[in-house]
């Protein structure tokens, strides 16, 4: 299959957008930018189209997809009831990086929800995404547009690296703004519960709906319960090289990592280091990559997946990473980093 790449970085090309809509309505796949990561879209109400997503990604088909909508009124056509909290959250955060879980209506096929009676819905905040959803019929199922087991794509080039030849079209909207996937909140039972941390954090949600809980499996590595978002329990992305997160006072972290870099260099290896703009020049060797300035949390989240992809292309022997427990986005960033490191964290 020849994958068409449509450049919409500066403005939406109406002709190519109409073509994307046609592909989606005919059951094909179109990758598109959102404010979080690139998505791999298909008609959410067409079970066969949803199956194509699983095939292109190599993803287990019991891992449910998020349905993307462009208008609030469309929510009522696919879910049983819209709790009052959901209306308030949608008012405040949609379009935006928030996904909410509802009881589904029959019109949503089980192929889209991975066999669940609930459906995840989000209205993304990106002009290209919103236009494409409307052009494609209003309901677009989309996981992140990476091959299963690779970091989520934050540029159209990342999508092409994974999906070229497997999907009909890629809409290039440039680099994404946030870089980690949306916050998922379950509203289908009692107290709103965060199933996946993202840009919209607990404090922001609580300002709108009062008490919010966090799925306990997110808080501890050895929790015996199953995560409520099925995708959170799959073996997640792990870099090819062994990765360790080093936590502690900045000076201790730098000197610990420098000792380890020296050991690796003596063995003739090239270690990788994930640093920040403030610290990058303080490492004595190896492949040092900065996630950006610690004073700019969005820069950190935006660079995370790209940095991990770069290390996979370079032959590093292992990766040492600083921790990024930043005030607002820290939980979302560290959730992804800890998984990438397979929970290997050293305190110094
Ligand atoms: O930011 C995002 O959410 C991106 C962009 C493309 O919108 N999408 C995304 O999709 O991250 P994906 O498929 O990579 O992650 C969807 C997550 C999975 O962890 C899945 O298990 C969970 O949402 N999920 C979907 N439907 C669910 C449901 N009914 N109940 C619980 N979890 C659900
Ligand atoms: Mg994903």
Automatic annotation (TrEMBL):
It is found in: Cytoplasm. Keywords: ATP-binding, Cytoplasm, Nucleotide-binding, Nucleotidyltransferase, Transferase, tRNA processing. Its EC number is 2.7.7.87. It comes from the Bacteria. Residues 14-200 form the YrdC-like domain. The keyword Cytoplasm applies. The keyword Transferase applies. It is an enzyme of class 2 (transferase). Pfam families: Sua5_C (PF03481), Sua5_yciO_yrdC (PF01300). Its main location: cytoplasm. One of its GO terms (molecular function) is L-threonylcarbamoyladenylate synthase. NCBIfam families: L-threonylcarbamoyladenylate synthase. Required for the formation of a threonylcarbamoyl group on adenosine at position 37 (t(6)A37) in tRNAs that read codons beginning with adenine. Belongs to the SUA5 family. This is Threonylcarbamoyl-AMP synthase. It comes from Muricoprocola aceti.
């Amino acid at each position: 299959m020849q994958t068409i790449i449509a450049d919409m970085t500066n403005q939406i090309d109406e002709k190519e957008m109409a073509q994307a809509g046609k592909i989606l309505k005919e059951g094909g796949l179109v990758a598109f930018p959102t404010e979080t990561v690139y998505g791999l879209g298909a008609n959410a109400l067409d079970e066969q189209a949803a199956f194509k997503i699983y095939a292109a990604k190599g993803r287990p088909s019991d891992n449910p997809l998020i349905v993307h909508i462009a208008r609030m009124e469309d929510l009522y056509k696919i879910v049983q009831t819209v709790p009052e909290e959901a209306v308030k959250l949608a008012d405040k955060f949609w379009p935006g990086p928030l996904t909410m879980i509802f009881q589904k209506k029959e019109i949503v096929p089980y192929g889209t929800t991975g066999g669940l009676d609930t459906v995840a819905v989000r209205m993304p905040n990106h002009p290209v995404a919103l236009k494409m959803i409307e052009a494609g019929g209003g309901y677009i199922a989309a996981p992140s547009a990476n091959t299963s087991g690779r970091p989520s794509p934050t540029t159209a080039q990342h999508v092409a690296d994974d999906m070229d030849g497997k999907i009909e079209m890629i809409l290039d909207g440039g680099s994404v703004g946030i870089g980690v996937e949306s916050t998922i909140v379950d509203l289908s039972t009692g107290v709103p519960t965060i199933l996946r941390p993202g840009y919209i954090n607990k404090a922001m949600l609580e300002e709108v709906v009062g008490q919010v809980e966090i799925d306990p499996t997110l808080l501890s590595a050895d929790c015996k319960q199953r995560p409520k978002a099925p995708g959170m329990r799959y073996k997640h992305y792990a870099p090819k090289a062994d990765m360790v997160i080093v936590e502690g006072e900045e000076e201790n972290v730098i000197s610990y990592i420098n000792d380890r870099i020296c050991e690796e260099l003596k063995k003739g290896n090239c270690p990788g280091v994930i640093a920040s703009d403030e610290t990058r020049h303080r490492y004595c060797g190896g492949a040092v990559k900065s996630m950006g300035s610690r004073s700019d949390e969005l820069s950190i989240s935006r660079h995370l997946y790209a940095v991990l992809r770069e290390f996979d292309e370079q032959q590093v022997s292992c990766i040492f990473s600083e921790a990024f427990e930043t005030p607002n986005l820290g939980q979302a960033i560290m959730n992804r980093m800890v998984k990438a490191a397979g929970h290997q964290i050293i305190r110094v």
